[in-house]
Amino acid sequence: AAGENNTEGIPLPLLSPHPLTSLLQSATDRQRFITLLFDQFEEFFFDRPLPERQDFYHFLEGCLSLPWVKVVLTLRDDYLHYLLELENYTTVTAEGAVLHDGGVLSNDVRYPLGNLAPAAAESIIRRLTEGAQYYLEASLIHQIVTDLAIETGEVRPIELQVVGAQLQRQGITTLAAYQQLGNHPKITLVQQFVAYVVEDCGPPNQALAELVLYLLTEADDDNRLYRPLKTREDIEYELSLLEVTFHQEQLDLVLYILVGSGLVFKIPEEPEDRYQLVHDYLVDFVRQEHTSELRSKIKDIKEASRIANQQKIAVLTAENAFLKQQQSRQKISRFAWVLLVIAWGISILWRTSP
């Protein structure tokens, strides 16, 4: 994405890196400030082969050598180390260039995107809603932020996104309408958002969508809930344990909608991508949608699978012990035969000696 401070706009067609650099050069010659934003940049390292990544690094180097051009890369903090590859294919290290003195991971060029202070959250809501000409009462904005910050004193951006999207979807613009949602309007909105996304998958796929979301939650031995990382193969396997019948196209669609809605992360990995529920606070909402009977069934299936795995390990351990015992016996047997041959040879020599 590209942003700039002029109103007439600079068209940025899909061009190869060098012509695009020339276009940026032309814009900066006219003293136009340009920001290039590359969101979810972690996907770049898995979607593009090394030659294409090298081309991009050279393009990036050219961009940051230009005045009035800034580049913003957003990615998960557990993928930051992939940026070290950039240092291998760039040479500019001067002030304001690609690499700072401390390198691409220097604190001077790295900024965490954390939770929002309540005042900042209110300011953001006002700017976004006024810019979209969707006006909310000041008292409603204050109450929303108060509800969102009640647990930690801060507002999680993902929770603000979910609640805000549902407010707009339902056309709620006043505090009175918000309070009509019940004693816990924030919780109601989140539940409705989850239900809306599941509904968006279409009637034939809603049950599958609910199960996929549920399978992206777990409880440990102390019944503490968490969000496991699972591959598509993991999901398919657990669905098969539940004897759920589905077509591959259905699961394709469900995963596409869940990821597109923001409820689920698709995390690029080798050799297979993994999926994860977007935030811990959603785990409770997802699990509440399922009956205790289903939860008990899933727990029994997983326990049976665990016992079966333990039995397999026990059988393999016994087989290995047996094989080692056999190998040991064979060694002893071969050694005994060698001794016998030597003894026989000695007896022959002794008999034939004068």
What does this protein look like?
It is a single chain. By secondary structure, this protein is mainly α. The chain has 3 domains: 2-87, no CATH class; 114-194; 201-290, Winged helix-like DNA-binding domain superfamily/Winged helix DNA-binding domain (Arc Repressor Mutant, subunit A). It contains 14 helices and 8 strands. Strands 1-2-3 form a 3-stranded mixed β-sheet, with helices on one face. Helix 1 (17-29) runs parallel beside helix 3 and helix 7 crosses helix 9. The radius of gyration is 31 Å and the shape is flat. It starts with a strand and ends with a helix.
Write the SSE topology.
Elements: E1 2-4, H1 17-29, E2 34-38, H2 44-47, H3 50-64, E3 69-73, H4 84-87, H5 118-131, H6 138-148, H7 157-170, H8 175-179, H9 185-200, H10 206-215, E4 218-219, E5 225-226, E6 230-231, H11 232-241, H12 248-261, E7 264-267, E8 274-277, H13 281-288, H14 292-352
Parallel strand pairs: 2-3
Antiparallel strand pairs: 1-2, 4-5, 6-8, 7-8
SS summary, helix count: 14
Number of strands: 8
Strand content: 5-15%
**Poorly predicted runs:** 1-16, 92-97
Mean pLDDT metric:
80
Top-tier CATH class of the largest domain = Mainly Alpha
Q: Characteristics of this structure?
A:
mainly alpha; Arc Repressor Mutant, subunit A; 3 domains; three-stranded mixed beta sheet; 56% helix
Précis, in short:
By secondary structure, this protein is mainly alpha-helical. The protein has helices at 17-29, 44-47, 50-64, 84-87, 118-131, 138-148, 157-170, 175-179, 185-200, 206-215, 232-241, 248-261, 281-288, 292-352, and strands at 2-4, 34-38, 69-73, 218-219, 225-226, 230-231, 264-267, 274-277. The strands form three sheets. Strands 1-2-3 form a three-stranded mixed beta sheet, with helices on one face. The protein has a three-stranded antiparallel beta sheet with strand order 6-8-7. It has a two-stranded antiparallel ribbon with strand order 4-5.
